[in-house]
């Protein structure tokens, strides 16, 4: 596994360093957001090429991580191209650190995200070094991954269409998958990485559970659901009522008596 991890770490380091240098030229650190998905594709490719484990499992991991990461990266890239200026989080950080911001951003943004990518990807790098053939548990993992990709892709597409309609400005998206969970895209990511973990678990890499656990923390607390909902209520009409009737994470039917009337 050591060789795979070194190859993955080197690949991610080159990607993040290059993105950091580009951010200095563009004066926009938020270009790191689309790179988040592509970084996992880089790890999967490095694991496939450097790994010496079962060919079928390495190829399977490359395909499922690649499809997820490319979709996410392209979606975030398109969204970034339609945005104006740097994300407010990085604007605040830039103002706080002044002339030190370039080096601070290298460590606190690009370096930190690179480390997180490597930690979350441990199931991928570990399983690529194992000889066990693909079996039933890996198939179950792919099924869970597919559920996650569906929720994430469809949820993102539904939200994009909703936002594209000027009549919906300032309103709450409570249709489609968003009727059953306030965060179908985050739930999708959750399923994707627990599915990938099952593929690794079959090869004996049980300890790589740290990967999906970190992703779960990111999705539900650190930078996902909890952080978003701290401010969205003041920006969206009827959000408090939406919270009352809609599950916060796992998809469930709207609470009885509180379903949206159409």
TrEMBL record:
<dbReference type="InterPro" id="IPR010721">
    <property type="entry name" value="UstE-like"/>
</dbReference>
<feature type="transmembrane region" description="Helical">
    <location>
        <begin position="31"/>
        <end position="51"/>
    </location>
</feature>
<feature type="transmembrane region" description="Helical">
    <location>
        <begin position="6"/>
        <end position="24"/>
    </location>
</feature>
<protein>
    <submittedName>
        <fullName>Uncharacterized protein</fullName>
    </submittedName>
</protein>
<feature type="transmembrane region" description="Helical">
    <location>
        <begin position="133"/>
        <end position="154"/>
    </location>
</feature>
<keyword id="KW-0812">Transmembrane</keyword>
<keyword id="KW-0472">Membrane</keyword>
<dbReference type="Pfam" id="PF06966">
    <property type="entry name" value="DUF1295"/>
</dbReference>
<feature type="transmembrane region" description="Helical">
    <location>
        <begin position="57"/>
        <end position="76"/>
    </location>
</feature>
<feature type="transmembrane region" description="Helical">
    <location>
        <begin position="103"/>
        <end position="127"/>
    </location>
</feature>
<dbReference type="GO" id="GO:0016020">
    <property type="term" value="C:membrane"/>
</dbReference>
<keyword id="KW-1133">Transmembrane helix</keyword>
């Amino acid at each position: 596994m050591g060789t795979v991890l070194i190859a993955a770490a080197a690949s991610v380091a080159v990607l993040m360093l290059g993105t950091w240098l580009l951010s200095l030229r563009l004066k926009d650190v938020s270009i790191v957001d689309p790179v988040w998905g592509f970084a996992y594709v880089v790890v999967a490719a490095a694991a496939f090429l450097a790994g010496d484990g079962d060919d079928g499992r390495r190829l399977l991991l490359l395909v499922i991580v690649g499809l997820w990461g490319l979709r996410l990266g392209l979606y975030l890239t398109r969204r970034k191209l339609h945005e104006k200026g740097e994300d407010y989080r990085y604007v605040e950080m830039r103002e706080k650190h002044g002339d030190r911001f370039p080096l601070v951003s290298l460590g606190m943004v690009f370096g930190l995200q690179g480390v997180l990518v490597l930690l979350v990807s441990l199931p991928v790098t570990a399983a690529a070094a194992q000889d066990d053939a693909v079996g039933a548990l890996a198939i179950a993992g792919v099924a869970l991954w597919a559920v996650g990709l569906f929720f994430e892709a469809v949820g993102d597409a539904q939200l994009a269409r909703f936002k594209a309609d000027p009549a919906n400005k300032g309103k709450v998206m409570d249709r489609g998958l968003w009727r059953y969970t306030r965060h179908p895209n985050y739930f999708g990511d959750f399923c994707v990485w627990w599915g990938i973990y099952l593929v690794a678990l079959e090869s004996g890499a049980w300890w790589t559970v740290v990967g999906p656990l970190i992703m779960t923390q990111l999705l539900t607390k650190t930078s996902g659901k909890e952080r978003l909902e701290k401010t969205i209520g003041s920006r969206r009409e009827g959000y408090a009522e939406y919270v009352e009737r809609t599950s916060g994470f796992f998809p469930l039917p709207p609470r009885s008596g509180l379903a949206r009337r159409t």
